[in-house]
Write a structure and sequence with these properties.
Length: 358
């Protein structure tokens, strides 16, 4: 008897549009400026050979080194398969499907909504203000039934930090009612802005981190959740038995050594210098309408004809990230900071296109 497999699937999964990651979107490029990755590989030697045994659930050396790096205690740190797993673990531990809701403020990272839809949790959106700061009065009106508020700072794809006074107001507003999850995937590019020191004051604050960006380990899939020990203990109840493969823990431990952290900081300085150069060059192009300030390893820019710019660069093997479908980002493309040579190639291609279209 034939059975339609689609009909067996949950309704919300059948209707779901999966997160369109840079890799899913594809392209045949040689200058990848679309996924906010570090542009060059970092060398590592694998030292663990005991692959016949299951790994530790929470590898001790990785947890201890990350706690020291973040200025926290090991019991405040959880390691997972990228920060994406951290996003989902919080929902699984704190939100009852069909009853509770999450809230976030677009334009922002797309996985908050995808994870909520996958699990069957309502999500509410409160659009950011024109300067991409939080609309606190509108958030206050929407909080009834909300268990988790997700906030990305610096925000992806806009590149701006959220005003710390507003974050404090949000934390005061949600105390005793909901968790506030601060996604700090890009915090290494502006370390002074981290909220990790706030954890002792706000037990309902949760911070997400990753090794994918500044640590140049996007292929490793290793992220961290920083929170009070009570929150970590609850997340430990819903995490998979062995979230980190032994080679992942091995490389993560090396990346978090003193030498690994020093190398990351050197890379951040190089990328920040290239970002400053791009921020000078882009506004001089006739195709560019607006360039937004950034505290990250990417720049958001608005173009006079973004589809034509995107396609022309794509055809030349320079792959950017189109943001037109994001609320308030019509005409915007996001540009990851590549090597200086890649940045120069991008500017040369845009200059040639500007002349062509003049």
């Amino acid at each position: 008897m034939s059975q339609n497999i689609e009909e067996l699937a949950r309704d919300n999964v059948r209707a779901l549009t999966p997160y369109q990651s840079a890799r899913r979107l594809g392209g045949n490029g040689d200058v990848w400026l679309n996924a906010n990755e570090f542009p060059l590989p970092v060398p590592f030697e694998l030292s663990q050979q005991t692959l016949n045994r299951y790994p530790e659930c929470q590898p001790k050396i990785v947890i201890e080194r990350y706690a020291a790096y973040a200025g926290l205690q090991p019991e405040q740190v959880l390691v997972s398969r990228g920060a994406d797993e951290g996003i989902e673990l919080v929902m699984r531990a704190f939100c009852e499907p069909g009853k509770d809701a999450i809230l976030f403020c677009p334009p922002t990272y797309g996985m908050y909504s995808v994870s909520a839809e996958t699990i069957g949790i309502e999500y509410r959106t409160v659009p950011a203000l024109e300067n991409w700061q939080l609309n606190l009065p509108a958030i206050a009106e929407q909080l009834d039934g909300v268990k988790v508020v997700y906030m990305c700072s610096p925000n992806n794809p806009t590149g701006n930090l959220i005003d710390p006074d507003d974050i404090r107001a949000l934390l005061e507003m949600t105390a005793g009612k909901a968790l506030v999850v601060a996604d700090e995937a890009y915090i290494e590019f502006c370390p002074q802005a981290t909220l990790s020191g706030w954890l002792k004051t706000y037990p309902h604050l949760v911070i997400l981190r990753t090794l994918s960006k500044a640590f140049a380990l996007a292929g490793l899939r290793c992220g961290f959740t920083l929170a009070s020990p009570q929150v970590i203990n609850l997340l430990m109840k819903v995490i998979a038995p062995y979230p980190l493969a032994t080679p992942v823990a091995d490389v993560a431990g090396q990346a978090l050594s003193d030498q690994g952290i020093a190398l990351m900081r050197q890379h951040v300085a190089e990328l920040n210098a290239s970002r400053a150069w791009l921020l000078e060059q882009l506004p001089q192009l006739s195709l560019v309408q607006q360039v937004f300030p950034s505290e990250t390893n990417y720049i958001l820019a608005r173009f006079t004809d973004s589809p034509a710019v995107f396609k022309s660069l794509w055809d030349q093997g320079i792959i950017l990230r189109d943001q037109n479908k994001n609320p308030g980002l019509a005409g915007c493309l996001r540009i990851s900071i590549g090597t200086r040579q890649e940045c120069e190639r991008l500017i040369a291609a845009l200059q040639a296109l500007s002349v062509e279209r003049a």
